[in-house]
């Protein structure tokens, strides 16, 4: 068994448990797009980042791929984590602003604008569909192709795969293909109309090391002054 601290709370979990699993066990919500129970961790979206370590020797890691360590100190919502997470959300919005799933996450973290050129891609390369097809459907009909900016997901030689059973599992897990939001103008890229999850105390200075992680927000009684 491994003993560690998450947001100051000491806990003991089995060896091999990831930080994401340990945090969720304690009730600390961590957002993620590329993680799903039953599928192996991939660490593509980086939304699940957390801060580990103490003092000046801290670093940011993806919680879905980082295994717990004895004596590890973890912060799931420090100011450093929140700044990085919001930047990641902006980048995801620039890639696929039409995704309702990403729009909901942006609303939850009070991201109201993004500063990057919109691409309107229909894939964020989270790999969920590839892992679903391989691990749950045991088909391996689709996979990653190419590298860098040319990386994509599809079938070999863009031909219909004989292994595909048209089960729809890839569409079920995809966070982008719902395409429910239709705004294409930069100033309307973030509609925020799907939810209102703004945490009023999330920017307060006294929460530098541990910012609000309540879900849903219960509007803590800390003064707004």
Describe this protein's structure.
The protein has 225 residues and is of the alpha+beta class. It folds into 2 domains: 2-117 and 182-207, Roll (Ubiquitin-like (UB roll)); 128-173, Alpha-Beta Plaits (2-Layer Sandwich), CATH 3.30.70. It is built from 5 helices and 7 strands, in the order E-E-H-E-E-E-H-H-H-E-E-H. It has helices at 19-26, 79-95, 100-108, 128-136, 169-173, and strands spanning 2-6, 9-13, 49-54, 57-62, 73-75, 143-145, 152-154. A 5-stranded mixed sheet has the order 2-1-5-3-4, sandwiched between helices. A hairpin with a 6-residue loop joins strand 6 and strand 7 (152-154). Helix 2 packs antiparallel against helix 3 (100-108). The relative contact order is 0.15. The model is unreliable at 194-207 and 218-225 (pLDDT under 50).
Determine and state the CATH class of the largest domain.
Answer: Alpha Beta
Report the helical percentage.
10-25%
The main sheet orders its strands as 2-1-5-3-4
Helix and strand composition category? alpha+beta
**How would a crystallographer describe the biggest sheet?**
5 strands, mixed
CA-based shape: globular
Strand residue content:
5-15%
- From the alpha carbons, calculate the radius of gyration and give it in angstroms: 19 Å
CATH topology category name of the largest domain: Ubiquitin-like (UB roll)
Oligomer: single chain
SSE order, as H and E?
EEHEEEHHHEEH
* Average of per-residue pLDDT values: 82
The CATH architecture name of the largest domain reads Roll
Quantity of strands, as a count: 7
Q: Helix tally?
A: 5
Low-confidence stretches: 194-207, 218-225
Number of domains: 2
The termini sit apart by 44 Å
